[in-house]
Amino acid sequence: MKNEPMVPEYLFEISWEICNKVGGIYTVVSTKARTLSMVEGLNAIYVGPDLWKGKENPLFTEDKRLWSAWRKSVADEKFTVRCGYWEIPGRPKVILVDYTGYMEDKDAIYGELWNDFGVDSLHGYGDYDDSMIFGYAVGRVIESFYKKNIKKGNIVVQAHEWQSGGAALYVKKNLPAAGTIFTTHATSIGRSIASNGKPLYDYFEGYNGDQMAEELNVQSKHSVERVSAANVDCFTTVSEITARECDQLIERPCDVILENGFEKDFVPTGKDFTTKRAAARAARLRVAAALTGDKIADDALIIGIGGRMEMRNKGIDMFIEAMSRLNNESGIERDIVAFIDVPAWSGDAREDLCNRLNSADNEWHSPLPNPYLTHNLNNFYEDAIACTIRNHFLDNRSGKNRVKVIYVPCYLKGNDGIFNMDYYDVLIGNDLNVYPSYYEPWGYTPLESAAFNIPTITTDLTGFGLWVNSVLGHTGKLNDGVEVIARNDSNYFDAAEEITKTIRIFAKLSEKEVAACRKKAAKMAEKALWKHFIKNYMKAYDFALKAAAQRIKK
């Protein structure tokens, strides 16, 4: 059929986070892989940096038989590749690229990018060189693979974030038959404006991306992002709020919105869910009691927040503000324990806390020093979260703080020394989660929270929050499973008070009412499974392939 959507025979999906678990894009690509593997006729190959040479990568299994003839044919190239399988559901095929051989040519590569596309690399710093040379090397890898193994056929190359933009540009120039997609998950300049404390939303229409990039010293990252968006066949992002940002700051409207989905196979069910939730609650409450020296009721309300250490962008400051308001109120009839699971510059688990947890005791009668902290901090007096907790007097002084705030400044991978449980196995014990983000293109943490049947509070400055509102047809409330708080540049304290009010209401709900909220949260998360969102990716592939077909005809 003439109007039938085109499906690529080969899809090359590029990200710095392939087999490299460092951020949210890892979750996007890895959870989507199995759903993509079910698309008839599509061969997906994931391409990432080889950052584990000489070390065992638990996420990657090399298979030297895979494309062995091609690998031998590129032996004289400046890149080297390892081929194998990504150890995630579906075990997709992966090419890991060692790009360092091209580092000596970076000036010539940057000159070529300037002459061909106008990419400004003069102001690059930090991770810029590694990312850009990685992108260039990946472009060379895909070109070589195509000429040796494909020769003809529909192919799509999807590059995630500015770190992979160079690959999309190389392919656009040297493989005109390939459809190209560039996906920005958060614009570099939008994130920079928000991270620097500037009002992103009140003056949104007045911002010029190039001008702000110069002011905030992110010219080179912004340049490759803007140029990649302008030159690919299909430009995409992850939410309506970020699409608006792209239109204003990158000056290219998005062609397709690719919402971030998930697979629910990591969420336990039935008796396993009940058992894990009970274990997590017990662990949470024991840690709180051991730190504070207080006896905490079994029916204590456990509230959580997690994510990256971005005080304003992730709303950690507002979370602590809301806990302070709750603590200063009278009439709170339940104990409240609020956990901040945010990795920071932490050292080992506290020895004094470990001694208490490893004892046979179940009650303690005095607090430990700094009874809000589970691990030693290397920058105790500079750590933003610790300072904010102290400034709000949420220091868990025995008997004086009805709201206990516990800061867990480490990655929960099962070996943290305190919980010794994976993040999801701890998350499941929470009763309510709060993610009052100021800048959040999508928002996996609230989506994961809802998937674990946990009523969740987020804001309408998150892609996820706006999506919830669109699904419901009204602003999400707690009885919908996800409450979406209105947030802007001018209502910080009003939004904090709204969160406080919601927690007060939730704390008084009956078991039946809480169960209904939990069921609604899970139902909302079900609507975000990849099986519902994958159609948008197919639309993007079709868009890119048709653009490439038109180019070849000319």
Describe it.
- The protein is of the alpha/beta class.
- The protein has 19 helices and 17 strands.
- Strands 3-4-5-2-1-6-7-8-9 form a nine-stranded mixed sheet, with helices on both faces. A six-stranded parallel sheet has the order 14-11-10-15-16-17, sandwiched between helices. It has a two-stranded antiparallel sheet with strand order 12-13.
Which consecutive residue ranges, at least 5 long each, have pLDDT under 50? none
Tell me the major beta sheet.
Answer: 9 strands, mixed
Give the number of helices. 19
The mean pLDDT is 94
Number of strands: 17
The rounded distance between the terminal residues' Cα atoms is 23 Å
Task: Briefly say what this structure is.
This protein has 554 residues and is α/β, with parallel strands linked by helices. Helix content is 42%, strand content 15%.
